[in-house]
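Hello again, I could really use a second opinion on something today. I've been puzzling over a protein and I'd love to understand its fold better. I'm sending you its amino acid sequence along with the backbone structure tokens. It would help a lot if you went through both lines with me. I've dropped the whole record in just underneath, so have a look.
***
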Amino acid sequence: LAGVFIPNYTQHSSVMMAAPISCAVDAERMRENFDALSAIGATEDGRGLNRVSFSKADMEGRQWFLGKLQELGLTARMDAVGNVIGRWDVNDNPDEPCVALGSHIDSVPQGGRFDGALGAIAAMECVAAMKAAGLTPQKPIEVIATSEEEGRFGGMLGSQAITGNVDAEWFHSTTDGTGLLLVDAMRQAGLDPEKYKTAQRAPGAFAGFLELHVEQGPVLETKGLKVGVVTGIAGTVNWDITLLGEANHSGTTPMELRKDAFLGLAEFGSKISQIIQQDGRPSSRITVGHVTMKPNFEHSVPGQVDFSLNVRDVDDTVMQQLANRCKEEILAASAKHGLKAKINERSALVGAKLDATMVKVIHAAALEIGVTDAITMPSGAGHDSQFMATVAPTAMVFVPSYKGISHAPEEWTEWEDAVLGTNVLLRSVIKLTGAH
């Protein structure tokens, strides 16, 4: 792993391990910070979160996070797209490649408290624990709370900007669900969108990137495991499809003479499992997530159906094969039922394979604190790490999600699991920076 210092390795169970260092997370301090951030944008009952990107609550949370980084003695700033960054320098060279860690702190509407925010708080706690233990890293460390990860405007703006993956045309034209332009939302939040390119970091700025995140799925809890080490992040294809038929009377129109738009959707929906079996893998996902019908009346044959399609896989080639099969089946179902199909290929994000050496570092860190059953696993959800992986060796730590629930107020991770995962993150950072 170029540019990263990993000291005192010995071979053990085919995983490289470092000499033990006495340093651990302060669970109470971490919980206090987590609860303080959770209170910003909390729903009325305190269970959920409304901290959507560039909202008043989101910017308040960013200012709070900035202040906490400053309290830790880090050189802290907010960049042009709202990323909050705190740097722990180890010498007089401000351009020395750093080991970065963090996650996002924005939420979906009516979301949960753990998604993203736990990873950002965990990153902050790692620095706090190292400083409390009197450790000195041999590489600079940065804590990053990224912005607009949840895709209110259709991307992951914070990590895209850092890594130089922002398309200018998209940036100036993309809107949220209400039609508000991203650039206008940024202005309302006090940011200057025309400076977004200044958020891009120089080539070689990062020696590595680590992100702790709740799994947002049921695998760890179902298996009774506490730590997952992510090896890849699924890409995603998002389409909007319209099937146009002919609205008519449900009683007087014979079945064989109908152009029923719903039957076209039903025909396609019945093929999804077959598509996965023939062209997919265990990590493949196809979802029809949103459906509307017109006239949407019990005595009318549906003349129009609009639906969304989401296709995911860690392997981009497989993902594209699945998308192509979906298109074939949509067109075939439309022809069978006398419909016209309009397919808007709205957006796509490529997946990412995470760094194998970084994965080994996390496994070794887990073993050091007694976690002998950490598993490698893919992530079906998108994360900032998939963009950070384009510029630096990157890996992720997953902690369990209660019943796999996420993006909802019921989202939950047991605090002891959060602390354990953060201790794995902490040990990983110590290894990667050669702290002593």
User: Anything to note?
Assistant: Residues 98 and 140 are 5 Å apart (CA to CA). Confidence is low (pLDDT under 50) at residues 2-19. The first strand starts at residue 10 and ends at 12. The longest helix spans residues 316-336.
